[in-house]
């Protein structure tokens, strides 16, 4: 399948992403879901706001997927990231990887989320009870 | 020549706009545009110091030469941190 890359300001559809990587030849599906939590570094978070450089982010995610497919024999990958305002408990990112065997699905999923966090131009603003700030690594 | 600069996240809020078009001398480098932008927009210095650069949607070094209609974006730090080696590896 062609990898799926979605950047959306609507709630992410986990079921649709899992369905997209399902296939009779798939023996394991690993899903990573990043969720907005209510605290960060001692602050009470009210909500998050994500900003994205959409065109570049899409290209970067495709590049990460291509690298994952080069390292592991994985055919089925779907990556979705949300932007705009997100409330506590909502999913900010979902990565679904389907492969014949579980080991490579776990490894590829881990690689994709770790690399995405550090190289894809998506920024997070924490709006807390005590004020707001763009989060830096 | 004209180049387009787009601002995201902390840059967008500090500059107060999402993009601008600048007329610059041909052959100008990213580092020189950075100085122009810092002069035009007071208060960007702290963010700029921690930022990297993308031209036409790829990470580039500061000495990169710009061309007509290039799209330049200053990339402020992202939540996950961003070692430059990884970014460079991603562009290969």
From TrEMBL, chain A:
Q: Which InterPro entries match?
A: MoaE_sf, Mopterin_biosynth_MoaE
| Lineage: superkingdom | Bacteria
User: Which Gene3D superfamilies would you find in this protein's record?
Assistant: Molybdopterin biosynthesis MoaE subunit
Classification via CDD domains: MoaE
Residues crossing the lipid bilayer are none
Which GO annotations describe the biological process of this protein?
Mo-molybdopterin cofactor biosynthetic process
Q: What is this protein called?
A: Molybdenum cofactor biosynthesis protein MoaE
Q: Source species, please?
A: Ktedonosporobacter rubrisoli
From TrEMBL, chain B:
* Key word Nucleotide-binding present: yes
Keyword Repressor set for record = no
One GO molecular-function annotation for this sequence? nucleotide binding
One Pfam family for this entry, by name? Answer: ThiS
Its GO biological process annotations read: Mo-molybdopterin cofactor biosynthetic process
Q: Which SUPFAM superfamilies match?
A: MoaD/ThiS (SSF54285)
Can you say what this protein is called?
Molybdopterin synthase sulfur carrier subunit
Please give the organism: Ktedonosporobacter rubrisoli
């Amino acid at each position: 399948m062609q990898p799926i890359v979605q950047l959306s300001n609507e709630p992410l559809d986990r079921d649709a992403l899992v369905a997209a990587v399902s296939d009779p030849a798939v023996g394991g599906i690993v899903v990573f879901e990043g969720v907005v939590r209510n605290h960060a570094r001692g602050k009470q978070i009210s909500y998050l706001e994500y900003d994205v450089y959409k065109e570049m982010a899409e290209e970067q995610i495709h590049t990460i997927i291509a690298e994952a497919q080069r390292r592991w024999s994985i055919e089925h990958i779907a990556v979705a990231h949300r932007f705009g305002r997100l409330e506590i408990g909502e999913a900010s990112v979902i990565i679904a990887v389907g492969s014949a065997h579980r080991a490579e699905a776990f490894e590829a999923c881990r690689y994709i989320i770790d690399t995405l966090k550090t190289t894809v131009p998506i920024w997070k603003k924490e709006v807390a009870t005590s004020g707001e700030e763009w989060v830096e690594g | 020549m004209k180049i387009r600069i787009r601002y995201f996240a902390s840059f967008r809020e500090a500059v107060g706009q999402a993009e601008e078009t600048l007329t610059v001398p041909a052959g100008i480098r990213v580092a020189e545009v950075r100085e122009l932008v810092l002069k035009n927009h007071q208060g960007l210095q702290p963010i700029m110091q921690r930022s990297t650069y993308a031209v036409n949607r790829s990470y580039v070094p500061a000495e990169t030469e710009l061309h007509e209609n290039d799209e330049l974006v200053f990339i402020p730090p992202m939540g996950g941190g961003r070692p430059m080696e990884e970014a460079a590896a991603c562009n290969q």
